[in-house]
Amino acid sequence: MDDQPTADLAELARQAGTTFILALFVDLTGKPCAKLVPVEAVEELQNEGVGFAGYAAGAMGQEPKDPDIMAIPDASSFTPIPFIKEGLALVHCDPHVESVPWKFAPRVILRSMLDRAAAKDLSVFVGAEVEYFLVDKDEQGNLVTADRSDNAARPCYDARGVTRMFDHLAAVSTGMNSLGWANYANDHEDGNGQFEQNFAYADAMTTADRVITLRYLISMLAEQRGMTATFMPKPFGDRTGSGLHMHLSLWQGEEALFPSESDDRGLGLAPLAYAFIGGVLEHAAALQAVIAPTVNSYKRTGAVSTTSGASWAPRFPTYGGNDRTHLVRVPDNNRIELRGGDGSANPYLAAAGAIGAGLDGIERNLDPGTPGGDNGASRAALPLTLLHAVEALEADSTLCGVLDAAGPGVSAYFANLKREEFFAWHSQVSAWEVEHYLTAF
Fold first, then answer.
1. Which of 24, 85, 196, 337 could form a disulfide with 34 if both were Cys (CB 3.0 to 4.6 A apart)?
2. Judgement on whether residues 235 and 357 belong to the same structural domain of the protein
């Protein structure tokens, strides 16, 4: 697990004309942490990494007394981004403590899960749909859509809304394509001010890196135009929330393992694919704590409708064909789409959780039932709140094992972190409470 790719970071930086490198990692909440390293120190960065006080960085399982986290760059993730700042690049890093990969680091956790899959001669490919809102604040400090003309009742795919945001969307698209990500679509989503920009699928680690990179790029490019890009799951109570849908497939070398020419259930899937789906559905409640990890997440999955007419967020652990009402959609026989994740998800943990649940389904040969809405009749609804999801996580040894893939104690730390987040929110007095209770008694 300590082995790093043989790519030479110094040579990559020289070829790209890089003058500064963001050495970047994320904490358990997905917060991007980085130091700006001048190219003159690239050899030191490559050979020794760069140090961080882990407690100050965020949710990294450390206390102030603990030794530094050393972020060791993965040179294969080197990404020149001169369209943000001339001469700038970033590289994703694997945090280490005292020369050992740090068990609380999301990238280290995902790498551990991919090692488990590789031990079964399986490789995992993932595609991700990154949804977000472009917002601003009005004179009173209220959150509003950045494009004030984006007020249609049914704004999804609106050509005018896309065109008004052309400069931003084109800048993001051009940036992605300059990096070889194969951006193939940019669209207005179902909420006013909401957009999605798609790129080609890749191996699970590469896709998770790209989700983090893309969030950074979208945020910076929006800021350059006086807007704020938010990946908050539900910034507006009456609008569709932002998902992080993941498309997953298993491979053995060059052979795709999900398709089958003979399938009595009609989706064209192999038994292995159904077992994988069975694992995802079996662990769906606990998985929500990982793929929908904030208080706000459950305003999205709990919504029954929006101003546009639908919430598009699953409420039950069901699966089916090309039907967006399910937790697991099967758009074709090459992949499955997990629709429970949202914009606050840490992509490394989300991918690791989905892989761990699916592998458990394969190991136990779990049967997901018949495709369609009735297959969830015997399963409880997805968790109503973050607290319910945390409780489900703590009771699920498989998902706890995913978070503990690189070492014990991470699942307990994560569960406690999220429980404290729930109670911090719960302790606040809201406008709803004042409105309903002030003179009610």
1. 24
2. yes
Q: Tell whether 224 and 313 lie within a shared domain.
A: yes
Q: Give φ, ψ of 115 to 5 degrees.
A: -65, -40
Final residue of a domain: which of 102, 131, 152?
A: 102
Element (H, E) at 250: strand 244-252
Q: Give yes or no: residues 80 and 129 share one domain.
A: no
For tokens 């809102």, the residue is: 133
Residue with tokens 């089958």: 260
Q: Are 345 and 353 in contact (CB under 8 A)?
A: no
Q: What is the pLDDT of residues 61-118, one digit of tens each?
A: 999 999 999 999 999 999 999 999 999 999 999 999 999 999 999 999 999 999 999 9
DSSP 286-330: HHHHHHS-STTHHHHHT----TTS------S--EESS-TTSSEEE
Alpha-carbon distance of 222 to 172, in angstroms, equals 9
Let me know: does 24 contact 93? Beta carbons within 8 Å. yes
Chain center to CA of 245:
8
Cα angle, residue 188 at apex, residues 182 and 190 outer, rounded to 5°: 125
3-class secondary structure, 222: helix
Residue 240: how many CA atoms within 13 Å on its side-chain side? 26
- The domain in which residue 34 lies consists of 9-102
Answer yes or no: do 199 and 329 share one domain.
Answer: yes
Site of tokens 């809405």: 373
Do 93 and 158 belong to one domain? no
Claim to verify: residue 97 and residue 126 sit in the same structural domain: no
Residue in the block written with tokens 């040969």: 365
Among 234, 159, 239, CA closest to 192: 239
Looking at the whole model, is its pTM more than 0.90? yes
Q: What's the structural domain count of the chain? A: 2
